[in-house]
Amino acid sequence: MIVPAARFDLVVRGGTVVRADRSLAADVAIADGRIVTVEPGIPVAAARSSIDATGLLVLPGIVDVHTHTRIASDEEPDRFFQDTRAAAFGGTTTLLAFDNPGTGISDEVAGSAVAAAHEWLDRTRGDAAIDVGLSAVLTAQQDDPVAELPALADLGVASGKCFLVYDFGVDEARLSALLRASVDAGLLIEVHGEDREMLDAGIEAQLAVGQDGPLGHALSRPPACEASGTRRAIAAAVAARAPVYLVHVSCGSATDEIARARRAGHRVYGETCPHYLSLDESRYTLPRAEAMCAVISPPLRDSSERDRMWRAVRDGELDIIATDHVPDRRSREKQDLGQAFPDVSNGAPGVETLLAVAYGVGVAGGRVSVERLVDLLSTTPARLFGIPAKGAVEPGRDADLVLFDPAARRTIRQVDLHHTSDFTPYEGLEVDGVVRQVLSRGRVIAKDGAWLGDRGHGRYVPRVLD
């Protein structure tokens, strides 16, 4: 093969390229931020520079479609940048964030999904370390989110999340209307699938017997609560002839609802999270201050459910692993003030540890192949959420790459992380695999734990669904 000199800006050579369908020994040539070709034996003279990836896996950048990353505030002006940079250290090169009030959106725009989206876009412009997109949160407080879906789509906001619980959650009538409208508007509706009546009854029952700590949180939201909410969301989507995406699935009974609908030919998708794949409900028996860090919804489950989740992602019953990252801190949002569990902030950080946990527990643990993991973390998220330039090491895609050392071993420690949280739920977890370099659109932004990127390098990614 005769190649003109310096045809490419960069060649990543000697690594094992991992795709969703297969792995291959190949070099990756990059020009103008995009992958030009993937083939073995690209001549050294063909590129201005090169990276030696011998012994490394060349993965597509991770696409995390579920984060509650908080936007900058006067008090904390660096927090959006810091968490997007932390994501990059972990191998994530694209993330989708929500614009619910807990992420820093102002009360002034609470009545309009479009106004909230504009505020999010304005306040994150020039602030991200990696590419970012927005998923709108659709709430009961908004005047008419159904009518606003087309305007959201015009902004490149191709997905919107509804909660069936909490004071801002929508009722089933509004969910049905949103699902019907989403078909013409071109949005994918995401649903937090818990049953409001069952949850309210569960909370009341736990408080009545004095079980007001973190264990009460877990007991108030059993798998049956999640399965019922999931079933109701699917029924509404089927009636509306609309696709639906169930977020943070934590148990087999909810997964069964999704699988049943899929077998019937309905467009139902599901995600789980790394905490459901690596942790269990024993966290709620730890001392109260520790247990409060595990107040997550749905809660951590029995270890048998953890094994069930791995089977679900391995066998294709669930489509995506995403973080549900909430940058809470034990010194603030999860500070133990003696409050009952309904008043404890829900969520835990994970934006920097997604690949580490999923590979270390999943691939290295023999639970899933590395090709399937690429599908779960990159290829399918990019496809389902309308990001065609991302998600695979293929010609024409953005050169978002992770050079990953499968032979190295690390112990996850908060002291080594870069996120805005002051704890990690994975403290002390030993995992195989270490991120060596991360490329975003052909540029090395992280290398061996050093930051080489810039604030504002990340771009807003407008999305359109197929």
Your description of this structure?
This protein has 466 residues and is of the alpha/beta class. The chain folds into two domains: 8-58 and 396-451, Urease, subunit C, domain 1 (Roll), CATH 2.30.40; 61-384, TIM Barrel. Helices cover 31% and strands 22% of the residues. β13, α8 (252-263) and β14 (268-272) form a beta-alpha-beta unit. The mean pLDDT is 97.
Structure in a nutshell:
With 466 residues, the protein is of the alpha/beta class.
Which second-level CATH architecture of the largest domain applies?
Answer: Alpha-Beta Barrel
Query: Taking Cα atoms only, what radius of gyration do you get, to the nearest Å?
Result: 21 Å
Q: Could you give me the name of the CATH homologous superfamily of the largest domain?
A: Metal-dependent hydrolases
Q: Kindly name the structural category.
A: alpha/beta
Q: Name the beta content range.
A: 15-25%
Q: What is the CATH topology assignment of the largest domain?
A: TIM Barrel
Uncertain runs are none
What characterizes the major β-sheet? Answer: 8 strands, parallel
Overall geometry comes to globular
What is the CATH class of the largest domain? Alpha Beta
Termini separation: 37 Å
Summed up, the domain count is 2
User: Kindly state the mean pLDDT as a whole number?
Assistant: 97
Describe how the helices and strands are arranged.
Elements: E1 8-13, E2 16-18, E3 23-25, E4 27-31, E5 34-39, E6 47-52, E7 57-60, E8 62-67, H1 79-89, E9 92-98, H2 113-124, E10 131-138, H3 145-154, E11 159-163, H4 172-185, E12 188-192, H5 196-208, H6 214-220, H7 223-240, E13 244-246, H8 252-263, E14 268-272, H9 274-278, H10 288-291, H11 303-315, E15 320-321, H12 354-363, H13 370-384, E16 401-411, E17 430-440, E18 443-447, E19 450-451
Parallel strand pairs: 1-6, 2-7, 8-9, 9-10, 10-11, 11-12, 12-13, 13-14, 14-15
Antiparallel strand pairs: 1-4, 2-3, 4-5, 7-16, 16-17, 17-18, 18-19
